[in-house]
Design brief:
Elements (H helix, E strand, L loop, with lengths): L23 H6 L10 E5 L4 E4 L1 H7 L3 H4 L12 H11 L5 E8 L8 E9 L5 E8 H48 L3 H29 L5 E3 L1 H15 L4 E6 L7 E3 L1 H18 L1 H6 L2 E15 L2 E13 L27 H10 L4 E7 L2 E9 L2
Parallel strand pairs: 7-9
Antiparallel strand pairs: 1-2, 1-5, 3-4, 4-5, 6-8, 9-10, 10-12, 11-12
Helix pairs in contact: 5-6, 5-10, 7-8, 8-10
């Protein structure tokens, strides 16, 4: 059921403080809600707030103590859908009801589009409201698609590579035998073409299979050593016209991982970015930024993590073409002529082997590849 778009003024009670003392038993009964990443409210059947978790405090911009005892109806631009849901819950008409709405907030002073889930509580006179920010829900859906896409790519690559490899060996061997029987030097040039092309395809197949063949060499990884190695390789290849900026959070701890795989993943992304900056390198104003941060209480790959590494590779190039934005991690998809289309596929595979994920946000003038890896 979708709410109407009619706006109503903020309930004056939103700015009032709660005068009665907080019920300590509520804290104990609803304590687990504070561990959730989504905003949660527990309401009486008339819409009065019994409890809000810490995430909802942050979203609305008001403390739990000041929210409890207020009417939650005033927090929506249209209160009718919630009134209907509360009435239905009281009459036992449903176990859970979903609809989209706009949540009004004190700080920041702007409405937040949310997906509302109203569920019955184990207490007869209470309902539980879960609010999923639509932007966050869209992000989670995109991450799940990326993960599923990467898994499908991995299976496709492995199966395709094995199917190519066997006949490829036969073609090369037959060309070599044929060359041995030939007396004309001119004709052997043709067999040499067959052999060279078979070898080129063999190298391509080996690259496709590399992430799945190579054992995972786990050790302590300092992400800034990884960044510095990548930076030195990029600077040596593009010594003029490209400025490589370091923006590091040096408090990030070491973690367990495969250092060489991570170097290769970051290098693939950074090298692609540098190649996309060729025109700006010629003009002398190309910029590539390696930025590290710690993210707290993040959800990706269908799991929630207390801490995660965020490594951004940002460039000021033309951006990813719209035609391939949704397919850049597919194998053999490239945004430039002559590209193999394997760099980002392999980078995503290496990062996922660290239980992480790569995301891309690209507009003209700024492309940001963000690597997320959970930290202990």
């Amino acid at each position: 059921m979708a709410p109407s778009r009619k706006k109503s003024k903020m309930n004056p009670s939103l700015t009032q403080s709660l005068t009665k003392p907080q019920d300590a038993s509520h804290n104990l009964r609803f304590q687990a809600f504070d561990w959730l990443a989504t905003p949660i409210a527990v309401l009486q059947s008339d819409g009065t707030v019994v409890f809000v978790n810490s995430e909802l405090e942050d979203v609305i911009g008001q403390s739990r103590r000041s929210l409890e005892g207020l009417s939650f109806l005033g927090f929506f631009s249209d209160s009718q859908p919630l009134l209907h849901a509360l009435s239905g819950a009281k009459a036992n008409e449903f176990a859970a009801l979903r609809y989209d709405a706009e949540l009004l907030r004190i700080n920041p002073d702007e409405a937040l589009p949310v997906h509302v889930i109203v569920a019955q509580s184990d207490h007869a006179d209470e309902v539980i409201i879960e609010l999923l920010p639509i932007q966050q829900q869209t992000k989670q859906d995109r991450e799940e698609r990326l993960f599923d896409q990467a898994q499908a790519n991995k299976e496709l690559i492995r199966n395709l590579a094995h199917e190519i490899k066997n006949p490829l060996g036969g073609i090369r061997g037959a060309a070599q035998l044929l060359e041995m029987e030939m007396e004309s030097k001119e004709l052997t040039e043709y067999t040499q073409v067959i052999i060279r092309e078979a070898d080129r395809l063999q190298i391509l197949v080996d690259r496709l299979l590399a992430p799945h063949r190579r054992p995972h060499m786990v050790g302590d990884v300092n992400i800034h050593e990884v960044c510095e190695r990548v930076r030195s390789l990029i600077v040596s290849e593009f010594p003029r016209g490209l400025r490589v900026v370091r923006d590091y959070d040096t408090s990030i701890p070491e973690f367990r991982g495969d250092r060489e795989q991570l170097i290769q993943a970051v290098l693939n992304i950074a090298h692609n970015a540098a190649l996309a900056l060729i025109d700006r390198i010629t003009e002398g104003d190309a910029e590539l930024t390696l930025k590290t941060r710690i993210a707290r209480q993040v959800t990706f790959g269908k799991q929630r993590y207390r801490l995660a590494l965020e490594l951004h590779v940002i460039d000021n190039g033309p951006g990813v073409p719209d035609s391939i934005k949704d397919r850049i991690f597919f194998p053999l998809i490239s945004g430039r002529e002559g590209g193999s289309g394997l760099g980002l596929t392999l980078a995503q595979t290496f990062v996922q082997q660290h239980h992480g994920l790569i995301e891309c946000d690209s507009v003209s003038g700024r492309t940001d590849f963000k690597i997320l890896i959970p930290l202990p």
